[in-house]
């Protein structure tokens, strides 16, 4: 396998599937099946999932919520999604563990690097919930932070689009795809890969980012086997 240890960032919105809100069980099962397959091949997998299918802090702020409270509500949404992932992994016999960015003892363990590495090295999927535990930071930032902390080889951003384009391919049919980009090129072209805090953390720590289509079953395995899919930023 091309990578020994990965941090997989999943979109909360992608979990909605065709439901429009909440969690689509079919999408959830596609995700956990793909992850379980690569774990069985020896790859260690950490996951950060967003909460936008349930609540987005910034959207809440626009509707009158206090920003700090809104972001905290968004963090709780990621915990709900993490619990759904945990349940789905257990249903297929894949060991997994939820780590939280703040204390919720009955839900998961408070994150620590040592505990997370122990879980990964024992073949468990480590699910990192609660964002960074602080307001004003997105789950993009949380994924970059956790990836650096667990010394991941790559940050894989699983989306419903097969890479980075010159424009949104769902809105602009003339948009063209990039296969490889440097961090500096991505900034110069003003391409929205991740928020700037997350992107800067990856760049500073020389952590490559690969954006790919996670909703196509089998793509995660293809990435780890070295197939030329998605867009690599390094």
Please describe what this structure looks like.
The protein has 234 residues and is an alpha/beta fold. The chain has one domain: Carbamate kinase, CATH 3.40.1160. 38% of the residues lie in helices and 19% in strands. The strands form two sheets. The chain has a nine-stranded mixed sheet, sandwiched between helices. A two-stranded antiparallel sheet has the order 7-8. Helix 1 (25-40) links the parallel strand 1 and strand 2 (44-49). Helix 1 crosses helix 3 and helix 5 (139-149) packs parallel to helix 7 (196-204). It is globular, with a radius of gyration of 17 Å. 44% of the residues are buried. The mean pLDDT is 93.
Which features would summarize this protein structure in a list?
single chain; 234 residues; alpha/beta; Carbamate kinase; nine-stranded mixed β-sheet; two-stranded antiparallel ribbon; 8 helices; 19% strand
Number of strands: 11
Mean pLDDT: 93
Sheet of most strands: 9 strands, mixed
SSE order, as H and E? EHEHHEEHEHEEEEHHEHE
In total, the number of domains comes to: 1
CATH architecture: 3-Layer(aba) Sandwich
Q: In the CATH hierarchy, what is the class?
A: Alpha Beta
CATH level 3 topology: Carbamate kinase
> What's the CATH superfamily, by name?
Acetylglutamate kinase-like
Using the alpha-carbon principal axes, give the shape: globular
Helix share, percent? 25-40%
Structure, briefly:
The protein contains eight helices and eleven strands. It has helices spanning 25-40, 57-62, 67-91, 113-121, 139-149, 183-188, 196-204, 219-224; strands at residues 5-10, 44-49, 96-100, 109-110, 125-129, 154-159, 164-165, 177-178, 180-181, 209-213, 231-233.
